[in-house]
Sequence to fold (318 residues):
Amino acid sequence: MLQDTDWQHRTVLLSEAIDAVFHRLDGVYVDGTYGRGGHSRALLARLAPTGRLLAFDKDPEAVAAGQALAAADRRFAILHDSFADMAEALSACGLSRVDGVLLDLGVSSPQIDNPERGFSFRFDAPLDMRMDTSRGETAADFLARASERQIAEVISDYGEERFAVPIAKAIVAGREGGAAVRTTFELSQIVARAVKTREPGQNPATRTFQALRIHVNAELQALERGLSAALGLLAPGGRLAVISFHSLEDRIVKTFIARESREQVDPRAPSLYAPPKVMKLLALGRIKASEAEVRANPRARSATLRVAERSVLQDVSV
Fold:
């Protein structure tokens, strides 16, 4: 079996994200997506001895890597869990407020580059795609039992693929003919035959693979839950920093920050009796990777960092 050390992971927007989220030497911070620890190690380098950092990851390999850091630094702990459940997990640790939450979304380089994980059409491997390999349905399992309509909806909604229907038809036709899709190459070949045109330089299977990965890991649902959990945990002045890698993720983050950065008025009640709820967040900006970083790490090209700060005004509804 190939080892995790065979793949290198370059943390995207490292200094920008740490600068954005960090503001208290003795603060309590959350790294919602540990990956291979780039952001966590950078945060720990700035934290005072009394500071604390809790990290989450669904990937058992990432958690195993993080446990070595936890053994070496008592300020740090890592949990095998989704950041969507951070409120419950932190409550169990006796924490109800944090000074910053950092989310680096998507998949890490070790996950993409390890053929055994089944995330990439560049290698022939079992079509798995689970971030948490200890539980849940694989992409192959989903394609083996889902209806043509369900498959088409996933590929269309999460991959924004205009050929979703012919791709789904081809997958189901193969399955009914005794050739269910079980490997990455089998899927990429089906997609290549069904997709008639594609943007220059892009593999025809790109959108389909993205869609299945998002569906299998319930990524967008987890993001929505995680953002709400982070808002509830942030202390006044606390920072939220989120790095996204495609438009579906970024749209959710952008909409959430915009919604929580407005005063909310109930139009059904007179203002005398129902004053507006104060805004909960202050949007601090949007950051893209520099040209130098993109040259060094092409995967940084699509990254977008959005930052917001918890309002110092208290809202009793939270």
